[in-house]
Design brief:
The structure holds 2 protein chains of 2 kinds. By secondary structure, chain A is mainly α. Chain A has 14 helices and no strands. Chain B has 14 helices and no strands. Classes of the chains: A mainly alpha, B mainly alpha.
């Protein structure tokens, strides 16, 4: 990526230079248009989040003001205070953390082994196994919602975290195997050959040489799977029913006010900002890896 | 190549393998590796079989029965009754129509807007990486959160959207309830999806743009080709594979839309998509058999796109 971006300046500079000489006026009009476009893109992508932050900082009186205030005057933190003392929301934070971490850990342990085998070994049945995993990254969760519900109910696990961990494995595991297999495949073949020449067993070659090298890739993939599990809504809203068992997305979708007619927008936005800021930070840290990961599986939040 | 005999899937840049002699330990190693490979793959395959394959088969099976959730009633085989029911159910057809409208509109808009954004960001300017990073913000926000954010922005009196476009710009009547209005609600939801996914589309297309060698544009410039001609004659044909992959991938994703619709409009018939219909039939009405039939319909439609997608992306070592 770095080399590619380096190559671009020469082209644009050359273009800018020639057009500036030929027709300066259109050139400047073009530059202004270009920067207006950039500003428009920034406003479009960032405004809704700004609005959530602004809303969360307004007082209840300011929230009920029409036309709305485009800039909050008071920077009131009472919505944050309310949300952090809301038992349902704090329970949801805990539930989401447990469910997401558990399903990612299961997928990491089982998935990295399978990914290693698929990425670096030739064995009979490898291709069907690969296609199976790939198709699992794409099939719609709604297709198995009813039968999973039935299985969970029969196992007596309805409205539990186990039910969610179990069902989240349907997307965390295939995603993990698929992305990590590509990761293992990209490692140089000499690694194992050297290990073999030194008389190490394939098992040893895996956990002493390849696994440590795969750690960064596993961390990134794990974080992406964590985000997907953290954001999941369909299973979470179907397999849990009591407020105490809800995960964060379900809690945010079902925030209720003092009466059923009153929607506590200030609190909803404060909760939204609280759960979104860590995600935005994570995504920014991982931005290079994300595009590759996204195309490899259904991780859209 | 010896590396193949070793059972190592050598990457294209693996020159060292040729030097190894074919000796007894090598085939020993290969055998051990094959055994180990299966040992490593089987837990994952087992879990996938339990959490995905079995439920999938079960869904097909249930779709031919009158199974209900939670009731003690005996489940009976009803043949194609559920499918027949769906075929005659106006609500199901409406939900299918909404899903297609949603998919076509949002994927289409995302592609066009994503292309504009990608081409803009592709040029070199100060703050380029900042703009690129900021584009990840909508993607990073959970769908449920973005649905709530937009729902709040759409509210007729206190919402920022009716105020800005109604009072400030005057391009729609002030106080319009875009999300509550039957005629506009689906498009209001499309707008949320477009906002959330355009950056992702743009980043995919940008990745495609960056592998186009820059010297072809230099010669086009020397030949005096206009920017428009360069785009349609050079960029677009070269970008076609990336665009197609992104299109199919997004279509697959859009067709199963659930979160944003369920959070913004619940079970409202104006915006009900097939996923919402199915979830409601399964859980709301507890009709496991009929809901499973709807699940199968979604599965088959997405399956077609998934098949096209797997043909399009290169499955390495395939």
């Amino acid at each position: 990526m770095a080399e590619l971006t380096q190559a671009i300046p020469t082209r644009t500079q050359a273009t800018a230079y020639t057009s500036a000489r030929r027709r300066p006026l259109t050139y400047y009009a073009g530059r202004v248009g270009f920067w207006l476009l950039i500003v428009a893109i920034l406003l479009y992508t960032l405004f809704p989040f700004y609005w959530a932050v602004a809303t969360s900082l307004k007082t209840s009186a300011e929230l009920n003001q029409a036309p709305p205030l485009y800039w909050p005057k008071s920077f009131d933190l009472s919505h944050y205070d309310a949300v952090l003392h809301n038992g349902t929301f704090t329970a949801a934070l805990k539930n989401s953390a447990i469910v997401a971490v558990a399903s990612v850990l299961v997928a990491l342990v089982i998935g990295s082994l399978a990914a290693y085998a698929i990425g670096r070994f030739n064995f009979r049945g490898k291709q069907p196994a690969m296609y199976l995993i790939l198709s699992m990254t794409m099939f719609p969760a709604i297709a198995i919602l009813g039968s999973l519900y039935d299985m969970i109910r029969l196992a007596g696990q309805f409205n539990t975290k186990q039910a969610l961990i179990f069902s989240y494995t349907t997307f965390t595991l295939p995603f993990m195997v698929w992305v990590l297999a590509n990761f293992f495949r990209a490692m140089p073949a000499e690694l194992e050959q050297a290990a073999m020449v030194d008389g190490a067993s394939p098992m040893r070659a895996f956990y002493q040489i390849l696994l440590p090298l795969a750690m960064p890739g596993m961390a990134t993939t794990g974080l992406l799977a964590f985000i997907a599990a953290w954001n999941e809504y369909l299973f979470a809203s179907t397999f849990t029913i009591t407020p105490q068992q809800r995960t964060v997305p379900v809690a945010i979708a079902n925030f209720s006010g003092n009466t059923s007619f009153e929607i506590p927008w200030g609190n909803i936005m404060a909760a939204s900002v609280l759960v979104t800021v860590p995600l935005i930070v994570l995504v920014m840290l991982l931005q290079r890896k994300i595009i590759a990961g996204l195309t490899a599986g259904a991780v859209k939040g | 190549m010896a590396s193949e005999r070793l059972g190592i899937s050598a990457s294209a840049t693996a020159p060292a393998g040729g030097r190894l002699r074919e000796t007894a330990p090598v085939s020993e190693w290969a055998k051990a590796r094959e055994r180990l490979a299966w040992l490593f793959v089987s837990p994952a395959l087992l879990v996938v079989a339990i959490v995905a394959i079995y439920p999938l088969i079960k869904t097909f099976q249930l779709s031919f029965t009158n199974a209900r959730l939670g009731l003690g009633k005996k489940t009976e085989w009803v043949g194609l009754d559920n499918y027949r029911y769906l075929y005659h159910d106006q609500k199901f057809f409406d939900s299918l129509k909404h899903t297609i409208q949603f998919t076509v509109a949002s994927v289409g808009l995302e592609t066009v807007l994503g292309m504009i954004v990608a081409l803009t960001i592709h040029s070199n300017f100060k703050g380029r990486s900042l703009v690129r990073t900021s584009m990840l913000v909508p993607w990073a926000i959970p769908t449920v959160v973005s649905a709530q954010m937009w729902k709040w922005m759409y509210i007729d009196v206190y919402g920022v959207i009716p105020d800005f476009f109604g009072n400030k710009l005057g391009i729609m009547s002030p106080g319009t309830a875009l999300l509550a209005n039957t005629k506009t609600s689906l498009w209001a939801i499309v707008a949320v999806d477009v906002w959330k996914t355009t950056p992702f589309m743009a980043l995919l297309l940008l990745a495609g743009l960056q592998v186009i060698p820059s010297d072809i544009y230099e010669s086009a410039n020397i030949d005096g080709a206009s920017k428009f001609r360069q785009f349609f004659d050079l960029t677009l044909p070269l970008l076609k594979p990336a665009v197609l992959v992104a299109l199919v991938f997004r279509t697959m994703d859009a067709f199963r839309v659930y979160d944003v619709v369920a959070v913004m409009k619940g079970q409202s018939p104006d915006t009900m998509t097939v996923a919402v219909y199915t979830q409601n039939t399964l859980v709301g009405s507890q009709r496991l058999g009929r809901g499973s039939a709807a699940s199968v319909v979604i599965f088959v439609i997405i399956g077609v796109f998934a098949f096209i997608y797997t043909r399009m992306i290169k499955v390495e070592e395939g």
